Amino acid sequence: MQLKRGNLSDQVYDITIVGAGPVGLFAAYYSGLRDLTTKIIDHLPQVGGQLTTLYPQKYIYDVAGFTKIQASELAENLYEQAKQYNPAFCLNQRVHRLSYLDDGSLKVTAESGEVHLTKKLIITAGAGVFSPKKLEVPGVEKFLDRDFYYLVTDVEKFRKKKLLVIGGGDTALDWAIYLKEVARRVTLIHRSNKFVAAPSSIKQLLSSKIEVLTFTELKEIKGNSHLEGVVVINNTTKEEKELEIDSILCCIGFTPNLGPLKEWGLELAASSIKVNQRMETNLSGIYAAGDVTTYDGKLRLICTGFSEAAIAVNHAAHAINPELRIFPGYSTNLAEKKTQQLVD
Questions:
Q1: Which residues contact 237 (CB under 8 A, 6 or more apart)?
Q2: Separation CA 48–CA 24 (nearest Å)
Q3: pLDDT band at residue 91, thresholds of 50, 70 and 90?
Q4: 37-58: per-residue pLDDT in tens?
Q5: Predicted confidence band of residue 344 (pLDDT cuts 50, 70, 90)
Q6: Mean per-residue pLDDT of the chain
Q7: Per-residue b or e along 279-312, where b marks 16 or more CB atoms closer than 10 Å to that residue's CB
Q8: Per-domain residue ranges of the chain
């Protein structure tokens, strides 16, 4: 998707959203619908959160109005919906410190030192920052982000490559299946013979031309300036085998972490932020929505996350300007009114 970046000045935004996953993108749309200036911050280089990072080719079945929709397509649609109102996007930034200004507005400082000023803050950080689980094999650091990758940010990096995919979960299988149309060839290794993925993905993998080696682990990476091959070992027979490989994608899982958010003074339950029925946290001016939240009866579903985003934005809008009703009216009337304002 072609990301349209908004104004990144030092202005005080009405709403700043931490997390550009599906719930954050929908919150940005709703904030714009309510005529609020909006900024979105995310630590990833692209919007979409787990939709684009973990399972871009996976279908999602519980989004209203769609019998099924591919995760990457849903992320694209949510981005297109949100950008109607020109929110500012600040990507590749990890939020770090929080403080309050004398007028009650909030100051969020990123690890990079960039400062974000806002009247209200909505946290839609999913399960937090996803850090890839590291593979403890000599040589990984030498080729990291050159020929060895934990994330796919550009599929063209694998064009015509002899690719090794490591892992047995949804992410590994999804990317192996997708990249077989891009790479020269794909080999997938997994330390077990049991895959923790959707049955349809397992069936598609095993019926494809992808070479699948089970009970197999990476032992050694070969090469100097470029990756030239690997040695794998069967963890049952201890038999070793050399493979002609020049690119590796490691998908052995992610570790979620709220990171610096844990130090802000938010009331937490394990790694979730406690909210009330208005999606308010215990801190003034800070709301939360989506998988990052918890409350009595909470369901961690994408469909409920969208609802929580709307609840958070509408209550935040009323808190910013008490003349704005919490209930905004129906979107048909709101959208038509905004369109007419643009025409006039």
A1: 215
A2: 9
A3: very high
A4: 999 999 888 899 988 887 787 7
A5: low
A6: 91
A7: bbbebebbbbbbbbbbeeeeeeebebbbebbbbb
A8: 12-130+255-343, 134-252
Kindly report, residue by residue over 286-341, the tens digit of the pLDDT: 999 999 999 999 999 999 999 999 999 999 999 999 999 999 888 877 777 666 66
Q: In CATH, which superfamily holds the domain spanning 12-130+255-343?
A: FAD/NAD(P)-binding domain (3.50.50.60)
Identical fold between 12-130+255-343 and 134-252: yes
> What is the reported pLDDT for 256?
73
**Which residues fall within 8 angstroms of residue 63, CB to CB, at 6 or more apart?**
69, 74, 302, 303
- Phi/psi of residue 293, nearest 5 degrees: -100, 165
Strand partners, 137: none
Mean pLDDT of all residues in 219-247: 96
Residue 87 class from Cβ within 10 Å (0-12 exposed, 13-18 middle, 19+ buried)? buried
pLDDT of residue 257: 79
6 pLDDT above the threshold of 50 = no
Per-residue tokens: 196: 């923790």
- The CATH code that applies to domain 134-252 is 3.50.50.60
Q: What pTM value is reported for the model?
A: 0.78
Q: 328 or 190: whose pLDDT is higher? A: 190
